[in-house]
Design the sequence.
């Protein structure tokens, strides 16, 4: 039985991805512009967020909201599993997460009215519904995404972008009017591969360090022309100079490259995460958190083993209190099982998993009805979800953003966090 599927539509490659190119092509240099507005990070409960995005919409029945009392054509073939917290049950394949339920909060009552992938992705990734109807496979951006807002508001440690997405960018994971400097830096390779390397971080293999330095020096000579020094004139070359310099320093910095050296992890740790693409990306996300990166999206999932290993590893390293781990998709799935043995789109009910960032664990917020048709208790919205993420990171969800033309926009139209998650 398929847990979730994508509709046949546009390829993810239709989405503009930042971070794929050479130094002079502007990949990492562009992403590093997110550091332009540096400041003191707020002393809040959460310093980082790892968002595990399950594109296609994970079924709530076969993950965090099983319905054993429903008819077989609704409850499905999997049994409920008791967890470490008495009275909380998950689907039988969530065995490792069940053992960590004291550290996990489940929200079972988020619902909305955007029942296709493109629209649902936008709503959950931004907290704003699409302004116009969009196609199921669409990549749309009407409002800045969670990661882009965090990149602007919090910034990043020296030499690293503030916002990563692996192995691709979500349909609506971009910056919209905030600007390309707040787009995610995409790490599209497979960290499980022996030949894994992050493009734009290591010097191209065909270049020696001397040749690389010579090219950087040549660029400096080419750039010796009049700059428009008044920043109010928005001369893009002014920003490019600084960020190319940062990118070239990163390529030559052993300390910065160490964050991406996943081979330095022990076999025991790598095995715990799972020797597959998703498992090793989750491990890389933990390394980026250690380096101070505030927002990372993992845009795929093989679920139980890896997510449990990530939560446990963060906890053992003393990082769980300051790092949120969130798992969700764009909506849930239909009560009825279709002719292909799967479930169809269903935005009336969905489950979201929260852990870390001092989120009170061992609790369930809200509920669906007895057969899982709809959220009926403590009904919550995507706006409540995004407001919670912002608030736990020390960002005011009621803030007003301004586009370059001066047009104001609410960060979240209903800036009300989910109080049970705030700690």
Sequence:
């Amino acid at each position: 039985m398929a847990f979730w599927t994508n509709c046949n539509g546009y390829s993810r490659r239709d989405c503009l991805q930042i971070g794929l190119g050479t130094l002079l092509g502007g990949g990492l240099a562009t992403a590093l512009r997110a550091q332009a507005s540096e400041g003191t990070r707020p002393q809040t409960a959460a310093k980082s967020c790892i968002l595990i995005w399950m594109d296609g919409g994970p079924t709530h029945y076969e993950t965090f909201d099983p319905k054993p009392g429903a008819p077989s054509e609704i409850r499905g073939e999997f049994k409920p599993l008791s967890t470490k917290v008495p009275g909380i049950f998950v689907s039988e394949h969530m065995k490792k997460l069940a053992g960590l339920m004291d550290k996990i909060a489940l929200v079972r009552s988020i619902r909305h009215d955007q029942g296709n992938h493109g629209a649902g992705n936008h709503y959950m990734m931004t907290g704003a519904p699409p302004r116009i109807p969009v196609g199921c496979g669409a990549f749309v951006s009407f409002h800045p995404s969670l990661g882009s807002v965090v990149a602007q508001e919090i910034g990043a440690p020296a030499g690293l972008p503030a916002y990563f997405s692996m192995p691709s960018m979500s349909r609506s994971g971009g910056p919209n009017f905030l600007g390309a400097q707040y787009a995610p830096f995409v790490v599209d390779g497979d960290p499980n591969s022996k030949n894994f390397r992050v493009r734009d971080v290591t010097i191209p293999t065909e270049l020696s360090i001397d040749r690389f330095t010579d090219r950087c020096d040549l660029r400096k000579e080419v750039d010796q022309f009049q700059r428009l020094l008044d920043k109010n004139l928005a001369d893009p070359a002014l920003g490019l100079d600084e960020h190319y310099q940062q990118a070239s320093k990163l390529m030559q910095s052993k300390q910065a490259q160490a964050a991406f050296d996943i081979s330095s992890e022990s076999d025991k740790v790598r095995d715990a995460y799972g020797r597959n693409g998703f498992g090793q990306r989750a491990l890389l996300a933990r390394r980026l958190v250690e380096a101070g990166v505030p927002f990372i999206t993992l845009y795929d999932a093989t679920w139980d083993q890896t997510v449990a290993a990530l939560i446990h590893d963060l906890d053992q390293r003393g990082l769980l209190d300051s790092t949120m781990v969130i798992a969700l998709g764009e909506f849930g799935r239909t009560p009825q099982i279709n002719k292909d043995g799967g479930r169809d789109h269903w935005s009336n009910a969905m489950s979201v998993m929260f852990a870390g960032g001092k989120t009170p664990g061992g609790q369930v917020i809200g509920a669906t009805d007895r057969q899982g048709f709809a959220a009926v208790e403590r009904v919550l919205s995507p706006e409540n979800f995004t407001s919670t993420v912002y608030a736990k990171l020390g960002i005011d969800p009621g803030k007003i953003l301004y586009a370059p033309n001066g047009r104001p926009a609410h960060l979240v139209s209903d800036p009300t966090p989910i109080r049970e998650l705030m700690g």
Notes: The first strand starts at residue 48 and ends at 53. The CA atoms of residues 163 and 375 lie 32 Å apart.
